[in-house]
Amino acid sequence: MTRRDVVLEESVERTDWSTAFEMISNRLAPSVLLILIIACDRGMSAGGGRSVAERETRDSAGVRVVENGNVRPGEWRVSSSALFTLGWGTGEPTFTWIQSGQVLSDGGALVGDFGSGSIYRIGHDGSVVASWGRKGEGPGEYQGLDAMLLRGDSVFVSDGRLLRVTILSLEGVVYATRPLPGAFLHQVSTILADGRLLLIPGDGYSAISETRPEWVFERKPILAVSLHAASVDTLAELPHLRRWYGTRGASPGPIPVKGRAAGFADGFAWSRSDGPEVRWYDRTGRLVQIARWTEEPVPLTQEGRRRMATRLEDALRGRGDATFVATQLAELEQGFDRHAGPLPYWDSFHVDRQGNAWLREYSLPGEPSSRWRVLARDGTLAGVIELPDVTSILDITHDRILAVRLNELDVPAVVMLPLFKS
């Protein structure tokens, strides 16, 4: 997430063993559920790329359906040499949790750091041009920097903790602060072409939830919000997160199966991680396209369970007595037993400004995969792209990727990577 998934995080209830994984994961900003994934080596074709076979049809409702086969060497690629890296050098800002960012037209960027509550303007060469903001509740102050979006010469910064949006100039001058109407635990994803903000569900849950004896997929609304009219429109209600309701505040388990949405100017895309499919909707919430690709499901194996248990045991070593460790391992095994179906097809979902969908391959906790499957806006496979050491994507334009990397001490840095399309 990317985002991002930090709205009122204090209300999210987790089991002790999931918290333990959070301690050893690479901070995994910005999604709280990325720490709960299991080992998986998916058998995708080497190199990635445009699909071998593509078939386009229309269903009975007139929705465009694109069927992609396996992939061959790709037409899109990312250079291994970054245009700049900021955060690890002497005299550079020490970031704590980079939640949001946008690429600027001059090749620079804006990024928001949760720890300091500050926004940094970065030049095309990676230098800090200016910084604004701090922790607080006054004008130009932030408790959260969940999303940062551009519209013309204005910057829209959403703060899910204070439930408001700050509008400011590219020089940091605050124009206005608006309350953010909408549903609990939603996050701002993009600005639609008509000026409304698109809100999508985050990862969190309130402390109060009904009790059910089965796994369920909760349907949560995708919202369009007008800041001027203070109106909220529900565009769609889509499956969000599969969750076990055995007890109040129960965990989604060690293998969370997710539904995720992310927006762009003309609408939004949505995918569920238990199927090789992405759906696109227009800004009225109408389904306009479905794209699928060929990929065999991967089952949860005893070896995968063993590797996950070993990682948890290593994380808990020295943090509790033997009884505590045994209890957490037993709960982990119960979570495995409740899991049904194959492992997820992806663990992170991002949609770039052009509406292309980026899905990161499912992987071990603390070892995020570098492989991202990309489905172009027209539903065809653009390939599998390697993004080495990238823990989260902040923004993607037609030729640049703004992302976050962590060093061996889990200190984050902002990195700008060139994107090539042929």
Quick synopsis:
With 422 residues, the chain is mainly beta.
Low-confidence stretches: 1-52
What's the arrangement of strands in the largest beta sheet?
1-2-22-21-20-19
- Assembly level: single chain
How many beta strands in the DSSP annotation? 29
CATH class category label: Mainly Beta
**pLDDT average, as an integer?**
82
What count of domains describes the coordinates?
1
Note the beta-strand portion. Answer: 35-45%
Residues in helices, as a percent range: under 10%
CATH topology: Neuraminidase
Describe the structure.
The chain has 3 helices and 29 strands. It has a single domain, classed as TolB, C-terminal domain (Neuraminidase). α2 packs antiparallel against α3. Helix content is 10%, strand content 41%. It has a 6-stranded mixed beta sheet with strand order 1-2-22-21-20-19, with no helix packed on it. Strands 3, 4, 27, 28 and 29 form a 5-stranded antiparallel beta sheet that branches. By secondary structure, it is mainly beta.
Helix-strand layout with pairing:
Layout: H1 16-24, E1 54-58, E2 64-68, E3 76-78, E4 84-86, E5 98-103, E6 109-113, E7 118-122, E8 128-132, E9 134-135, E10 141-142, E11 147-151, E12 154-159, E13 164-169, E14 174-179, E15 186-191, E16 197-201, E17 215-226, E18 231-244, E19 259-264, E20 267-272, E21 277-282, E22 287-292, H2 302-316, H3 322-338, E23 346-351, E24 357-361, E25 371-375, E26 381-386, E27 390-396, E28 400-406, E29 412-421
Parallel strand pairs: 2-22, 9-10
Antiparallel strand pairs: 1-2, 3-29, 4-29, 5-6, 6-7, 7-8, 11-12, 12-13, 13-14, 15-16, 16-17, 17-18, 19-20, 20-21, 21-22, 23-24, 24-25, 25-26, 27-28, 28-29
Helix pairs in contact: 1-2, 2-3
